[in-house]
Write a structure and sequence with these properties.
single chain; alpha/beta; 2 domains; 5 strands; Rossmann fold; 312 residues; elongated
Amino acid sequence: MKTLVDMKGQKIAGEMLSRYHSGNIPPLLIFHGPDGTGKWSAAEAFVHQNLCDVGTACGSCPSCRKVMRGEHADFIQFPEAKTAIGDEEDPAPFTIRWLLQTRICFTPFDGELRFVLFPRADLILNEAETALLKTLEEPPDHSRFIFIVSDLELLKPTVQSRGIAIPFQRMPDISVSEITGETNPEILELLGGSLHLYPFFQSSLYHEMKEKIQEGFSHPMSLLELEKWLHSQDKKHFSEYFPEKDYSYDEIIDIFGMILLKESSTHPSRNELNEIVFDFKKNLHRDVPGLFPYLTGRLFHNLMAVLFRSKN
């Protein structure tokens, strides 16, 4: 079982959580920072230590055993999904009215505190958030809330003002290496201080993508084959590489751009190539129907012009 002592590369967050563990815990803690920097695992460690009968996440007391089995009644973890307000008379589980009517209104089952964790606080819908605000304004003495979000700006100011922000930052490569055991400097550089993409760089898709990009840089026909391959891959196909990790299609294409940048770093025309890829990545996430085929078509047209202009 992880404890706060196990937190690596997050000195500020670790010190703040250790201080709150030994003193009064604020009604709302907001863990914010890039994906893959340990927010969720830190939240679980913090809760485990505070629910532990001896306060150390010993792993052997009755409370710890319940936490490890996911059965502790005083640790409520909402799913990583949109959180609705729920029906007024018969609210479904993991809606806000379910929480307020069947959990928060009662004292904890086993100890002095109850913890409620929202791993995607930015997905609490407006009406649900409004219903929860009053509880955050006047929280019961026995309940504590933890919100996790990638960026504080995704939360309304009214929510931010009711909590204590716990900052998580991108980790130094040495911390990422200690956590993952990864020693390849190229992969550490691509990870950029986050563990979010680590499963991708351990997959066969990464090696396949890297190999096809290298081939594409070597010959015009190979570049055309790379474009054809990229267009033939859809979200369903990519998801087959990661049965336990839900990478979005946009994330996979964004990673493709990262590898393009890495592979072009030693090319004589790297400055021009970088501009082409940066332009592709900059526009990739615009919510415009039919944008992806246009962007990839322009990307490969421009790559062809720069990579093989001396052969035209």
